[in-house]
Amino acid sequence: MQAKIDITDLEIVELSEDSDISYFSCGNVELDTFLANIAKIAQMENTSRTHLAYLNGDLVGFFSLICDNIARKYVDAEYQKENYGHKVYPAVKITRLAVHREYQGKGIGHALLYYALGVVYALQRYAACRYVIVDAKPDAINFYKKIGFRSNIAVKNKYLLYFNYNEFRTKYETEIDAGS
């Protein structure tokens, strides 16, 4: 087993026009192409927000977020709110999450996911978000399920996974209050 990275050593910054992303490769053509050719444009057009993770000056990962929603019918009944008068719940979508191939298996993906959930936590002060969702590729489903994401449907070789953010928020606030 590879040695885990101390996540406190990661520096996470927002993608900027000056960010050097040319050497990033996670081994997935779609994710590499997004970062190399689309992420900066999407950032300027305000269609996604990408965050980069650095370790000792090396770009080791990234994730991108957008505002979205999830239809009630895709959420298990136990998580549906009674008397909710809308057909969709507000959500934040993790559109991309990747770790550089040389750093995979060292806990960086989990660190990025928890950082993204922290971003959603901060957003909660200004806008409601009941769920965090992701269109996961088949090989990433277990990664998300270990954190607590649930699956419901498959669409075009991707799987819509959702995470009841209220559960995370309650746990997170309890840990903050306890000084953890």
Low-confidence stretches: none
Mean pLDDT: 87
Separation of termini? 27 Å
Main sheet overview:
7 strands, mixed
User: What is the number of beta strands?
Assistant: 7
CATH architecture: 3-Layer(aba) Sandwich
For this structure, what is the CATH class? Alpha Beta
Structure description:
The protein has 180 residues and is α+β, with helices and mostly antiparallel strands. It has one domain: Aminopeptidase (3-Layer(aba) Sandwich), CATH 3.40.630.30. It contains 4 helices and 7 strands, in the order E-H-E-E-E-H-E-H-E-E-H. The longest helix has 16 residues, at 29-44. The relative contact order is 0.15.
What is the topology?
Blueprint: E1 10-14, H1 29-44, E2 49-55, E3 58-71, E4 88-99, H2 108-123, E5 131-136, H3 141-147, E6 150-155, E7 158-164, H4 165-178
Parallel strand pairs: 4-5
Antiparallel strand pairs: 1-2, 2-3, 3-4, 5-7, 6-7
Brief synopsis:
With 180 residues, the chain is α+β, with helices and mostly antiparallel strands. The chain contains four helices and seven strands.
What attributes does this structure have?
single chain; 180 residues; alpha+beta; Aminopeptidase; 29% helix; globular
